[in-house]
Predict the structure.
Amino acid sequence: MMRVGLLGCGNIGHLIASHAEGFEITALYDQDPDRARELAAGLGATAYDSFEAFAASDVDLVVEAASVRAVRTHGEAVLEAGKDFVVMSVGALAEPSFLAHLRAAAVAARRRVYIPSGAVMGLDNLKVGRIGGIDRVILRTTKNPASLGLSVAERTLIFSGRADECVQAFPKNINVSAAIALAAGREVEVELWADPAVDRNIHEITAEGAFGDAYIRVRNVPSPDNPATSYLAALSILVLLRDLGEPIVVGT
Ligand SMILES: NC(=O)c1ccc[n+]([C@@H]2O[C@H](COP(=O)([O-])OP(=O)(O)OC[C@H]3O[C@@H](n4cnc5c(N)ncnc54)[C@H](O)[C@@H]3O)[C@@H](O)[C@H]2O)c1
């Protein structure tokens, strides 16, 4: 069975651990060692206090469910240690120079970096952009103001512009636009709305290109333990991990 190392033992880490089927989590690391120890105890796995020892452990791949900083700090070392790397904090790859750096590290180590679909659907066929060409992609995200740390009385547009500008103003909202940009192979126009009437994280993607046009709307329920994280995002890692061990894989 595939052996997985978990980098980050918070909300998503716990969800992955509680649904580990078709793979086994054998090594855990968190900057807060108590979190790794607590989760490891329930799994009968090993918690490491040192990242270097974690990366050197006998796992096939490392799943990052920690932070953009963790990807930047540890991504290259994971690949150099001979492990494939699943990146949840995909916002780290919005920086072109870091993306190129990680890509070169993966090529040199003959390892792969996997990016789960996360909080949206439709990344599979947005990849058509790399072949047929996509002319325009718009991402409109609507969240309850509380989850954005804001207080507004009515539906309000709080950001409109390029994804890389959105990172600076709302860094926690970059994962989805970064994943879409990587899939479509082009810049994404982002709108961020705060709406006190919604209790879900809503992502609407509009794409136009040689294939035709598409409109995708996902209304995500927040994760049971962390309202800032969509439940779908955690589940998407599980599907990716299961697919890696499956003889038949559905979807592009
Ligand atoms: N791709 C997507 O669509 C998507 C969706 C939701 C969340 N995310 C991202 O996934 C990540 C995890 O989300 P979560 O809800 O589990 O967060 P969380 O805050 O509940 O847990 C993160 C854990 O990682 C640990 N951590 C943070 N930085 C670390 C580092 N540098 N080294 C080691 N450990 C570190 C923390 O101590 C914490 O235990 C976040 O970066 C989040 O933005 C991505």
Notes: The radius of gyration is 18 Å. The chain is about 35% helix and 25% strand.
